[in-house]
Write a structure and sequence with these properties.
mainly alpha
Length: 131
């Protein structure tokens, strides 16, 4: 994938997520996860899972939301450590609070993704033209 295409998908995913369009955001994150050759592909998987979890919450499926949300938190926590993405820390805390809200069946609070996602060095995700 071309770097500019990846950046466009990244911007689109952030916009959709931040505007509460979780199903559509999931589709974008999933495309990034499955098609990019990037050290960040598992980060995109975690974001896809988070989007699915929030969509489940919107539809009233709290059990499904909690299950996918826990998987998302695990993947994103692992990626935060593996890729030294400390700016993910506040997002991980918000996901933890969201999971607690689901467990106690309280209303969940919307949250935004960190703007630092736009600064990921996606050049490493572009295909090698020599192969």
């Amino acid at each position: 994938m071309e770097v500019e295409h990846l950046r466009g998908l990244l911007r689109e995913g952030l916009h959709l997520f931040d505007n509460g369009r979780y199903f559509e955001a999931h589709e974008v994150w999933e495309e990034l996860w499955k098609t990019s050759r990037s050290p960040y592909s598992l980060l995109f998987k975690g974001l896809a899972q988070l989007s699915v979890s929030l969509e489940h919450t919107r539809r009233g499926n709290l059990r499904g939301a909690a299950s996918v949300g826990r998987r998302s938190l695990a993947v994103l926590s692992e990626q935060c450590a593996a890729l030294n993405l400390q700016w993910l820390g506040p997002l991980l805390q918000k996901i933890g609070a969201y999971l607690e809200q689901i467990a106690s069946e309280r209303d969940t609070q919307p949250f935004r993704l960190p703007d630092e996602l736009l600064s990921l060095p996606l050049e490493s995700a572009a295909p090698d033209r020599n192969n």
